[in-house]
């Protein structure tokens, strides 16, 4: 069960989104326990290249990443925003521990189930690692970590999670992160790069239909948490790539005209035949976009790490004065 304040924010956002034209829902609500499980399934799909690319970067360039994080002192706290199952981070942690780094790991996630699974796995694999898993909103938690005993922080925001934000939201997000960072702290961000649009569309419209289930799960969540009566058989997942804006977008399409009642909102919404509800944006980046995002948010790029296909970039940022 979610805390009441979060539930009412969810209710308010659903009301706002379904009252808008075109209608939309926010992808930030995808990650209930079932959504987190489905996303882990997505990460194992052959079409979803993002995870494999980031994993390749971590596996082949661990020493370079460690050298850049350590920056003359191998004492630092790793804080991961949206840790999920932590599989990729485990590659880094394993290497850092072998190099006798004095680190703590604080995974932050909205799903308690995902955090529990991660904690269990890391405790078994790295018995000596100090861990502080936290469930909840990034910023509430980050504020509480601001002066964390004077230890240096390396914030991780991996998996191209940033792609779900508009440019404006991204700058606000990075500026907010900057406020809780000290001058020597670092920010490590995963960006999915621009590439052949066919490759991108396949990643968001997989042949096994896992992405479709992931998208539809938000309707199930509304049914359960807000007393909705969405009939999932009336909806299809539809994904496109807009090459002029370098963004993948996903929609749920209503096959027939019908009404949906949502008790918590005390409202009924009408959907037309073939009406689309906009669900998610997944932005793809060029290096100049990454540079200008950093500059506009008060950061400078310290070092970029790429996979062998140049599909993906993990970018390490430091604060500018
Ligand atoms: C977790 C936001 C990085 O946009 O690629 C995967 C979510 N959506 N398939 C992405 C997602 C559909 C994913 N992120």
Summarize this, please?
By secondary structure, this protein is of the alpha/beta class. Helix content is 40%, strand content 25%.
Structural summary, described in words:
The chain has 321 residues and is an alpha/beta fold. 40% of the residues lie in helices and 25% in strands. It is built from 11 helices and 13 strands. It has helices at residues 4-19, 33-43, 49-60, 62-70, 87-98, 112-125, 138-145, 167-179, 197-203, 210-226, 287-297; strands at residues 75-81, 102-109, 130-131, 134-135, 153-157, 186-192, 235-242, 247-254, 258-262, 267-271, 276-283, 299-306, 312-319. The strands form 3 sheets. Strands 1, 2, 3, 4, 5, 6, 12 and 13 form an 8-stranded mixed beta sheet that branches. Strands 7-8-11 form a 3-stranded antiparallel beta sheet. Strand 2, helix 6 (112-125) and strand 3 form a beta-alpha-beta unit. Helix 2 (33-43) runs antiparallel to helix 10 (210-226). The longest helix has 17 residues, at 210-226. It is globular and about 65 Å long. The mean pLDDT is 94. Bound molecules: N,N,N-trimethyl-histidine. N,N,N-trimethyl-histidine (AVJ) binds at residues 42, 50, 159-161, 163-164, 204, 211, 214, 280, 282. N,N,N-trimethyl-histidine is lined by residues 42, 50, 159-161, 163-164, 204, 211, 214, 280, 282.
Key features?
321 residues; alpha/beta; 8-stranded mixed beta sheet; 3-stranded antiparallel beta sheet; 13 strands; globular; binds N,N,N-trimethyl-histidine
């Amino acid at each position: 069960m979610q805390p009441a304040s979060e539930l009412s924010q969810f209710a308010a956002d659903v009301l706002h989104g379904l009252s808008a034209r075109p209608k939309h829902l926010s992808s930030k609500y995808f990650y209930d326990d079932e959504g987190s499980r489905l996303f882990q399934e997505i990460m194992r799909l052959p079409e979803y290249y993002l995870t494999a690319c980031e994993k390749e970067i971590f596996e082949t360039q661990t020493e370079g990443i460690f050298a850049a994080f350590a920056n003359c002192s191998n004492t630092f706290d790793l804080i991961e925003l949206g840790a999920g199952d932590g599989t990729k981070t485990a590659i880094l942690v394993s290497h850092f521990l072998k190099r006798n780094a004095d680190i703590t790991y604080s995974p932050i996630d909205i799903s308690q189930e995902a955090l529990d699974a991660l904690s269990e796995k890391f405790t078994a694999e790295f018995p000596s690692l100090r861990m502080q898993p936290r469930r909840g909103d990034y910023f509430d938690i980050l504020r509480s970590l601001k002066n964390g005993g004077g230890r240096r922080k390396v914030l991780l925001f991996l998996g191209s999670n940033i792609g779900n934000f508009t440019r404006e939201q991204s700058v606000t997000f990075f500026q907010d992160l900057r406020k809780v960072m000290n001058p020597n702290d670092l920010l490590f961000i995963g960006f999915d790069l621009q590439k052949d649009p066919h490759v991108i569309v396949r990643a968001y419209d997989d042949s096994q239909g896992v992405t479709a289930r992931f998208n539809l799960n938000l309707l199930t969540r509304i049914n359960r948490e807000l007393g909705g009566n969405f009939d999932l058989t009336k909806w299809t997942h539809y994904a496109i790539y807009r090459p002029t804006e370098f963004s993948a977008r996903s929609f749920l399409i209503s096959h027939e005209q019908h009404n949906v009642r949502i008790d918590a909102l005390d409202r009924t919404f009408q959907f037309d035949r073939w009406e689309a509800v906009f669900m998610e944006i997944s932005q793809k980046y060029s290096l100049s976009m990454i540079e200008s995002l950093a500059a506009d948010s008060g950061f400078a790029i310290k070092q970029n790490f790429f996979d062998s296909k140049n599909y993906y970039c993990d970018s390490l940022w430091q604060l500018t004065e």
